[in-house]
Specification:
Shape: rod-shaped
Helix content: over 70%
Order of helices and strands: HH
Structural class: mainly alpha
Distance between the termini: 55 Å
Number of strands: 0
């Protein structure tokens, strides 16, 4: 734990990783929703 606080670079990478993961999840859920809408529209 102390090593993480002693190294600001790894702290930055940690937040960057969390932010990237959240954005990825949001985009993935949006893409899934869009795919569901498209397939629903195609099967009508």
């Amino acid at each position: 734990m102390m090593g993480r606080f002693a190294n600001p670079q790894s702290e930055h990478n940690y937040y960057h990783f969390i932010f990237g993961t959240m954005v990825c999840l949001l985009l993935e859920s949006k893409c899934k929703g869009l795919a569901v809408v498209i397939t629903d529209w195609n099967t009508r």
